[in-house]
């Protein structure tokens, strides 16, 4: 499936409807105090004036609160936890139903700044928020996207690290880690080897967040390279190769979708003479990483996540931020649309009651931690267009198989809908039991990683000796 493309759209002109002083007048007429009115107008002015600059914690919080005050029916602002130093880990959810999950509407997330000194993602996510809220009901594509998707945006996962990085610098590392000196992208449970790192507050907050939402697609934004990297990042063994997931074709498509909609990533010219064909790479092929967030999302969160490296310079000067936004704008939007790939539906009993914890997977794509329905009996499977056999299994009952023909529905903002109805009544399936241990470690195929075979190693040895 060829990645689609999207053209940048002009921001609506100031004053084209939307919130403004009228909201303050409405608050005054409804009994609000003058202090309330002044406060809401201050927040609105913050929301309306997003500059291309670095926003430190207080400014970032003020902006997010201003956006929520200006668009209360379109946004939901909440903190999923606190950092080591007590800073809130803010998330802004956007959509027609921003406060809660709505059956049939997939959940999407962007996370940035988990390395505090990698700052571009933090700022372009603020501008993405600005673009989404100001385009709603003005741009038909963005309107349909927000009506059919719940989008969660976390501008910073490591606010302590960002505040510790005082001066923009391309290779600054002081703020990379959290306050406890831990690399948050090495801090998650690992599916291939034991990760003995102590789980940090920021990591635990994200793990809880993933557990509590039905995330389908995600990306985490980094800096220091220019490439879209996809799972797996790790593998049993240490030989260099390619760590292939059961959904490798989907991950390649997702990475290419971002790369080909980016201004230059698709050219494959990385940083410091690095080259990445088509601007993408398998994570393990690039370098081995233990305890990464994207593998955790895929194995334990039932969420496809890729890692987006957006800038050669980790903390570039602020006067470059506008260009970074222009370079990434179309890719950010087109990538969100991919949450509508594949098939979705509900699993119910004879009386129409939803059945949670049903294993639902596509034949030939077994996950070491089986994908299961949520509390509403829902499932979401990201699949490329084609013919698939979908298997719904309630342990203790017979399985149900259905053959589906999946079209490219991303432009329609809805995956193919395929429900399953079991003939039994009041089925209760046990909750998923998938321990946070190296699940792949003892498997014979160990994620089907492609490693150099013995005869290739022998041939390489002979060539090295011959041409030494």
From TrEMBL:
Domain Peptidase M14: start-end pairs: 53-339
Catalytic site positions: 309
Top-level taxon of origin: Eukaryota
One Gene Ontology biological process: peptide metabolic process
Pfam families on file: CarboxypepD_reg (PF13620), Peptidase_M14 (PF00246)
Cellular compartments per GO CC: extracellular space
Keyword Glycoprotein listed: yes
GO molecular function: metallocarboxypeptidase activity; zinc ion binding
Keyword terms, alphabetized: Glycoprotein
Gene3D superfamilies (alphabetical): Carboxypeptidase-like, regulatory domain, Zn peptidases
PANTHER family named among the record's database cross-references: CARBOXYPEPTIDASE M, PROTEASE M14 CARBOXYPEPTIDASE
Family membership: Belongs to the peptidase M14 family.
Protein name: Carboxypeptidase M
Organism: Athene cunicularia
